[in-house]
Amino acid sequence: MSLxxxxxxxxxxxxxxxxxxxxxxxxxxxxxxxxxxxxxVVILQPLRPDFEAFEAAGFASLPGLADLPEGERFAAAVxxxxxxxxxxxxxxxxxxxxxSGPVLVxxxxxxxxxSILKALRKLTETSAPVSKAHGKxxxxxxxxxxxxxxxPAQENRVDGFVTAPGVFSADGIDPASALLVRSLPEKLGxxxxxLGGGWGYLSTQILTRAAVKQLHLVEADHVALGCARQNxxxxxxxxxxxxxxxxxxxxxxxxxxxxxxxxxxxxxxxELGQAFIAAAANMLVASGHLWLVAxxxxxxxxxxxxxxxxxEEIAGDNRFKVLHAQRPRRPKR
Length: 333
Fold this sequence. Notes:
Blueprint: H1 3-10, E1 22-25, E2 41-44, H2 48-56, E3 60-62, E4 76-80, H3 85-98, E5 102-108, H4 113-121, E6 130-132, E7 135-141, E8 156-158, E9 161-163, H5 175-183, E10 191-195, H6 201-206, E11 214-219, H7 222-231, E12 237-241, E13 253-258, E14 263-264, E15 267-268, H8 270-283, E16 284-295, H9 301-307, E17 308-316, E18 320-328
Parallel strand pairs: 1-2, 1-4, 2-3, 4-5, 10-11, 10-13, 11-12, 13-16
Antiparallel strand pairs: 5-7, 6-7, 8-9, 14-15, 16-18, 17-18
């Protein structure tokens, strides 16, 4: 429930114009937006599971500003701060740039709301914050173009790859993915899926193998997928903005390669990676292979033994392990 938003609009003194659309940046699934007029709200959410949740609830939803009609402006905006500082600043600056009225900024203390508020006070006039439930909400007037320095002047490149604020491993090649690449065999089969492919590092390495005929890169973050399209310049690659846990492959897959996520916000959730393993088992051919890398502590071996005829650790160090499983078992009906 967005209790802070309700307080800001009811008792906090923030007045949303009576007409015009309201942009809501990066709300997570399950967030209560009933304080806003639903028919005027446009959800801007690049994460596919959250996007689908709001779309199913009847909200107008888009992955990002690039999908809006050129020149469209909003009467008000609400930004729910993500954890990554650079991404948070970017979202606030984007909201300010397309909004003529108030821009509300909501965040938990653990997500850096105090830091954002302090930085904004140096650039523009802000309201007094409303504090509740270990977080704060405040607002300022949009449309003044005072936050242009928070928008990157050019695309972010690291190690020769395009990345973006807030995407996984935005500052460089993830060491776990690098370990997985060093462990992959030369022969991977003709049809390969990269589940949770991010900005495309694993896919670029998979496509160095001439025997690969199709590479399906599945990524839930629309921003990361946009980076992948720039990094993976190969006609064999196919891109999907989708939740890998529910994605349906166009054909059965010979090999799945993945570095699955295991966090939702700050909380560790091994169930995410386990769902990726189950999805991989379901899409593989009978002789198929799964190659994955994971943090050493994650409990994936039991599920791998249940869903595959053979599974073993084939590489690793004190932080990561590379697991190889083959010949998926079909779940009993």
